[in-house]
Amino acid sequence: MPTQNPRGLGIHNLELQNKCLLSKWLYKLLNEEGLWQQLLRNKYLKDKPLGSCTKKPTDSHFWKGLMKVKDTFMSFGTFKVLDGSQIRFWFDTWLGNKPLKDKFPALFNIARRKQDSVATVLATVPLNISFRRNLVDRNLRDWHRIVASLQDINLQGERDKFRWTLNSSGTFSVRSMYAALINNGVSVSQDIWQVKIPSKIRIFLWYLKRGVILTKDNLARRNWNGDKSCAFCHCPETIQHLFFHCTYAKFLWRAVHLMFGLPPPLSIDDLFVNWSKRGSKLYNSLFLTAALALCWTIWITRNEVVFDKCRPKFFLQVLFRGTYWLRQWAKLQRREELRLQLLLAGQRLETSALHFFSSNGWLSNRFIG
Amino acid sequence: MGHDVDKALNLKLILSTFEQLSGLKINFHKSEIFCFGRAKEHQEFYSQLFGCEVGNYPFRYLGLPMHTRKLSNKDWLDIEKRIEKKLSGWKGKMLSVGGRLVLINTVLSSLPMFMLSFFEIPKGVLEKIDCFRSRFYWQSDQHKRKYRLAKWELMCQPKIQGV
């Protein structure tokens, strides 16, 4: 099973959400003016940049929470230099897209007073910075590069601004931070959640794709003792068997093959990866919807046999049930042409199956299966 | 204000003068008094002087519990109770998995959001809320354990990467 990324159901991770919500305060503290910002600045920041603030045991619960998320928050933004008092020269990102300590680690290692703010460093000419050793060779070159890039920076009277890099507009949003934290920067758009089917079927599909639905082999793996044979035949029941190799499944896929010329899919993976990808994105979703209607039908029929102890349904009944779902789900399609396509496919499947059975006798499913 | 009886009397005087002048009445029964340090020993006296109750921590301000120290798990109990109250009214068995997922995402996850935006959530409370949510999703309870088909961490992954 191709599992390059973990894939989920989108339930909120409250711990991360908590971090993101707290970060919002930090953003407002840096970028907005107001009574509470003044209060917090006077109480906790004084003249220090926010970055060099640390947690003290006497701090309030609220502030301690903010201090915990501070580093994560700062890593997702860059500073715009105005007066330079809020920016740490080495640690914060303000010149280019990386902090200077990562850009020039050798220089950083020998620098004195590493926590200095940009304002302190730029206060005098030459720069108010000293190194523990004389600068030679590479370090000297690096240092000249820094000094050269500092040329165009003029300190102004206003407070520094913090730009949020995860949003194109540069303003903070909890959503963007949450996405960054939970994806670790990877976002792969999959169109399968966009297929227009009822949400419980989507979750069924999710289970199916992960191979965890409770077929009897999966049950046995969870210490269930019982008859492990398939509800329809005597083979051991697995997902692969139930949805692709069992007579019912074979019959359904074969019917599709005969009517539309689509070869039966080999496995769940094949179904998702190759079988349903035969055209534009829109039509892929149609193929998937139709395939799911069949899978869902098989699953429902199987459950009826297992739980309600009914006799297995006649082949045609199963097929008609499939087309029934198809018709139902056609109503969910947003686009008129897709809706019509689905309805048409269902109709064609029904009429040709009926035709086949009436011309060859009602028990001729052996031919088709 | 320091622990000083004269100052307290003065304050009382100022307050009642304010009442007389402005015509606005202060409801002392609704007000509470908090004493710290040495004044704590005399809090009975102060509460009688002002005619108000001695306040207890944590008190609520704008819907948030306020305390001088860190909020304990007990102070978060309120959230858990609210979730339990919601859950008790829902017939999870009558809902489909899809419906339950929607309820979890829209209702249960958003109940603690307000508190989350102010305080760091304790690990224990987090686990409790996750327990409520996953239990509701899988429909298991104390008496009956249900099969869980996916790990909770996995289910918390965003949908955009789904399937």
Structural description of this entry:
The complex is a heterodimer of chains A (369) and B (163). Chain A is mainly alpha-helical and 369 residues long. Chain A has three domains: 1-76 and 171-188, no CATH class; 80-164, no CATH class; 191-368, no CATH class. Chain A is built from 17 helices and two strands. In chain A, helix 1 crosses helix 8, helix 11 (239-245) packs across helix 12 (247-260) and helix 14 crosses helix 15. The model of chain A has no long low-confidence stretch (mean pLDDT 82). Chain B is mostly helical and 163 residues long. Chain B has two domains: 5-56, no CATH class; 73-156, no CATH class. Helices cover 46% and strands 6% of the residues of chain B. In chain B, the strands form two sheets. A two-stranded parallel ribbon of chain B has the order 1-2. In chain B, strands 3-4 form a two-stranded antiparallel ribbon. In chain B, helix 4 (97-108) runs antiparallel to helix 6 (123-138). The longest helix of chain B has 18 residues, at 5-22. The A-B interface holds A 5-15, 17-18, 21-22, 24, 61-62, 64-65, 68, 179, 182-183, 186-190, 192-193, 198-207, 209-210, 212-214, 219, 222, 272 and B 67, 69-71, 96-99, 101-102, 104-105, 109, 112-113, 116-121, 126, 129-130, 133, 137, 147, 149-150, 153-163.
Q: How is the largest sheet of chain B built, in terms of strand order? A: 1-2
Low-confidence stretches of chain A: none
Order of helices and strands of chain A: HHHEHHHHEHHHHHHHHHH
Strand order of the largest sheet of chain A: 1-2
- Please report which band the strand proportion of chain B falls in: under 5%, 5-15%, 15-25%, 25-35%, 35-45% or over 45%: 5-15%
- The backbone outline of chain A, from C-alpha atoms, is elongated
How many distinct domains of chain B? 2
